[in-house]
Amino acid sequence: MSPETKKKGGVAERVREMAEPLARELGLSIWDVQFLKEGADWFLRIFIDKEDGVGIDDCVDMTHAIDPVLDREDPIPQEYTLEVSSPGINRKLVKPEHFAAFLGAPVQVKLIRPLEDGSRLLQGVLLRAEENGEFEVQLDEETSCTLQKKECSSVNLLEDDFSE
């Protein structure tokens, strides 16, 4: 990896920069990009989204669009597997704009360290989200919890079973 890639936030950020204009041309948006090692293998995962939902053709189109760019730019020195998919119903909220877009939605929060009562898993409704990573979840009628994104291993949307 070149020093230039490191300065720009690593492989995932560099790939996001390459993928975003391609996604826009296809009527898609980039939800998230992850570059992870699982066992002995490396995976580059690009999660795409669009207003009326992502289909298999969208994933194929994005793969065909990004593949030659990755080959040409070569931002990843080791072998890896490219995966393009939808973030899914229980999508991870990663960026401040993800939190802002889903205010009022049910979420599940996994904490890195337990709360005083030993809880590590919280479920509730996302009430508030700030640009600095602070957010608030309504746990029940009387209790809400204010957290920092950095305190959480994940924040995921929950399928909204009570909307029907």
TrEMBL record:
<dbReference type="InterPro" id="IPR028998">
    <property type="entry name" value="RimP_C"/>
</dbReference>
<dbReference type="InterPro" id="IPR028989">
    <property type="entry name" value="RimP_N"/>
</dbReference>
<dbReference type="Pfam" id="PF02576">
    <property type="entry name" value="RimP_N"/>
</dbReference>
<keyword id="KW-0690">Ribosome biogenesis</keyword>
<keyword id="KW-0963">Cytoplasm</keyword>
<dbReference type="InterPro" id="IPR003728">
    <property type="entry name" value="Ribosome_maturation_RimP"/>
</dbReference>
<dbReference type="InterPro" id="IPR036847">
    <property type="entry name" value="RimP_C_sf"/>
</dbReference>
<comment type="function">
    <text>Required for maturation of 30S ribosomal subunits.</text>
</comment>
<protein>
    <recommendedName>
        <fullName>Ribosome maturation factor RimP</fullName>
    </recommendedName>
</protein>
<dbReference type="InterPro" id="IPR035956">
    <property type="entry name" value="RimP_N_sf"/>
</dbReference>
<comment type="similarity">
    <text>Belongs to the RimP family.</text>
</comment>
<feature type="domain" description="Ribosome maturation factor RimP N-terminal">
    <location>
        <begin position="18"/>
        <end position="89"/>
    </location>
</feature>
